[in-house]
């Protein structure tokens, strides 16, 4: 079946959550949002592209920082309302310089923060 | 620092996305939503609990199907607006009987669906 980006279920703001996972380690790197144009551009260019909710513009991941995500695999879930992209991540995915955005763990009721890069 | 479920950034509906990842394989199993009560209950009981948007009630994953998710690790991201839970998954995570909800891949413009269980 041909894939049509319009067939995904976007929220009221026209966005769908996209989880980025490291293609080799399986580490979950980040979650961000795509709109229809970002989905189409990600598949066409293989440069993972999100929608920046703060800047209200397409966000080609790593375009300014160099920390690009090359698309390796593009998946959607059973409800068609969430995406999972396997990526070849250059440098850190997180703006804090850490590999992943999920560097804070809750253990025994306390937050434990992993060291930065 | 003590973790306060109220310190997370929920959306206008009071929800935060939660990604469930298999603790051993690293496979991303599903994404669902939690509200503050679900976060609190997940941490207290170690039974991963979501908020069902269709039923508008707490959804103790696997309570009726038996396909429970035992919490192994609870993480939050740099923006405090997304959760990542490492789980010990009993049975399939997906309602279709598949291990993961992300069984559809987009390859060369076409949808490729993995076999069901």
UniProtKB/TrEMBL annotation, chains A, B:
Annotated binding of Mg(2+), by residue: 77, 79, 81
Cofactor: how and how many bound: Binds 1 Mg(2+) ion per subunit. Binds 1 zinc ion per subunit.
Sites where the protein binds Zn(2+): 78, 94, 101
Residue ranges annotated for the Phosphoribosyl-AMP cyclohydrolase domain, each copy included: 30-103
Catalyzed reactions: 1-(5-phospho-beta-D-ribosyl)-5'-AMP + H2O = 1-(5-phospho-beta-D-ribosyl)-5-[(5-phospho-beta-D-ribosylamino)methylideneamino]imidazole-4-carboxamide
Entries under SUPFAM superfamilies matching the protein: HisI-like (SSF141734)
Pathways involved: Amino-acid biosynthesis; L-histidine biosynthesis; L-histidine from 5-phospho-alpha-D-ribose 1-diphosphate: step 3/9
Cofactor needs: Mg(2+); Zn(2+)
Location in or out of the cell: Cytoplasm
EC number: 3.5.4.19
A single MF term (Gene Ontology): phosphoribosyl-AMP cyclohydrolase activity
Entry keywords, A to Z: Amino-acid biosynthesis, Cytoplasm, Histidine biosynthesis, Hydrolase, Magnesium, Metal-binding, Zinc
Top-tier EC class: hydrolase
Reported function: Catalyzes the hydrolysis of the adenine ring of phosphoribosyl-AMP.
PANTHER family xrefs: HISTIDINE BIOSYNTHESIS BIFUNCTIONAL PROTEIN, HISTIDINE BIOSYNTHESIS BIFUNCTIONAL PROTEIN HIS7
Quaternary state and interactors: Homodimer.
Similarity field: Belongs to the PRA-CH family.
Protein's name in the database: Phosphoribosyl-AMP cyclohydrolase
Organism name: Loktanella gaetbuli
Encoding gene, per UniProt annotation: hisI
